[in-house]
């Protein structure tokens, strides 16, 4: 029986990863540790609450004492570390919580992984740690690209990546780092580009877009991301970094326009707003290393986006309450009223 600690398993990708693994394997036990911050929506796991292979524990990964207690209660073979503050706009407004969760939290987990001799520490990172690519070239991020983060969120993730590497090099901790491109799919919090666009249009509201909307991202369906993580856990070489992407480069305005077409909405619902501070203009992932190892994505962007739009149409009962919930730290609405994309 493979015993897995999943951190941040109430979040978007971590939650989908838990569903993915439980759907495919009968010989695993998953303990989901999540602090239940504003972006964590636990109702996504209602259908697995009685599953004997699944346990939920509410805890903050940066709380060493609480996490040590969890490690004493459960004997983990693998740690799959998703837990992170991830919204760039929020990191610009308040970087401190990003350092606490993304850096200190990661160090706490690494120390416990070393102490309890886990078989592998799987760290989920982001292509944003590489910085920004030039529009004028066909250059892509490889695993050897120097890290050059440009905002507090990506800087905190880069710091976590360096800690993971250091624990491997210094202590021999078996680790892998996965750096993914932009994810989309079911259960994504409504402040992110694709769900924000879908939910605002379904509410008949305009979609605010930063600058000219020509920022380029490489899009990865979360189910493909989950299958890649599972593949790396089982096949990745210790100490190695793997990029996960699908070569689906699109500008933000193209993504929004494609969603509007699927929803049969006119372009008058687009509203351009001043650009974000330090807004990276292009990300693009080179996935040759992972492809050569034997993994391939299953989704085209068109099929994945169409499926995602349909999911949000059919699950208004999941996302509509979320648009009105309060953020306990700031005591303000987190509904997607004025969030640009």
UniProtKB/TrEMBL annotation:
Keyword Disulfide bond set for record: no
Occurrences of domain NAD(P)-binding (ranges): 5-308
PANTHER family found in the cross-reference section: DTDP-D-GLUCOSE 4,6-DEHYDRATASE-RELATED
Reactions catalysed according to its record: dTDP-alpha-D-glucose = dTDP-4-dehydro-6-deoxy-alpha-D-glucose + H2O
InterPro entries: dTDP_Gluc_deHydtase, NAD(P)-bd_dom, NAD(P)-bd_dom_sf
Family assignment from sequence similarity: Belongs to the NAD(P)-dependent epimerase/dehydratase family. dTDP-glucose dehydratase subfamily.
Official protein name in the record: dTDP-glucose 4,6-dehydratase
Presence of keyword Ribosomal protein: no
């Amino acid at each position: 029986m493979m015993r897995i600690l999943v951190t941040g398993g109430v979040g978007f990708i971590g939650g989908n990863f838990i569903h993915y693994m439980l759907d495919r394997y009968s010989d695993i036990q998953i303990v989901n540790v999540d602090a239940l911050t504003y972006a964590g929506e636990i109702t996504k796991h209602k259908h697995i609450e009685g599953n004997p292979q699944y346990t939920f524990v509410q805890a903050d990964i940066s709380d060493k004492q609480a996490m040590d207690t969890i490690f004493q209660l459960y004997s983990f073979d693998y740690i799959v570390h998703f837990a992170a503050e991830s919204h760039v706009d929020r990191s610009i407004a308040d970087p401190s919580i990003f350092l606490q969760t993304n850096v200190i939290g990661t160090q706490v987990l690494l120390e416990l992984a070393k102490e309890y001799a886990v078989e592998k520490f799987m760290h989920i990172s982001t292509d944003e740690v590489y910085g920004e690519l030039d529009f004028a070239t066909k250059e892509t991020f490889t695993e050897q690209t120097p890290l050059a983060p440009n905002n507090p969120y990506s800087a905190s993730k880069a710091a976590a990546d360096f800690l993971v590497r250091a624990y491997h090099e210094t202590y021999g901790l078996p680790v892998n780092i996965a750096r993914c491109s932009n994810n989309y799919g079911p259960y994504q919090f409504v402040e992110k580009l694709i769900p924000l666009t879908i939910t605002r249009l379904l509410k008949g509201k305009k979609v605010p877009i930063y600058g000219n909307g020509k920022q380029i991202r490489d899009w990865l369906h979360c189910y493909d991301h989950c299958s890649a993580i599972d593949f790396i856990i089982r096949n990745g070489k210790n100490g190695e970094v793997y990029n996960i992407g699908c070569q689906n480069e699109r500008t933000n305005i193209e993504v929004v326009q494609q969603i509007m077409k699927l929803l049969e909405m006119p372009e008058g619902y687009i509203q351009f707003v001043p650009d974000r501070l330090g807004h990276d203009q292009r990300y693009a992932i080179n996935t040759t290393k992972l492809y050569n190892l034997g993994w391939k994505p299953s989704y085209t962007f068109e099929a994945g986006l169409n499926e995602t739009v349909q999911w949000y149409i059919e699950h208004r009962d999941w996302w509509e309450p979320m648009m009105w919930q309060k953020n306990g730290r700031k005591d303000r609405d987190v509904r997607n009223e004025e969030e640009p994309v």
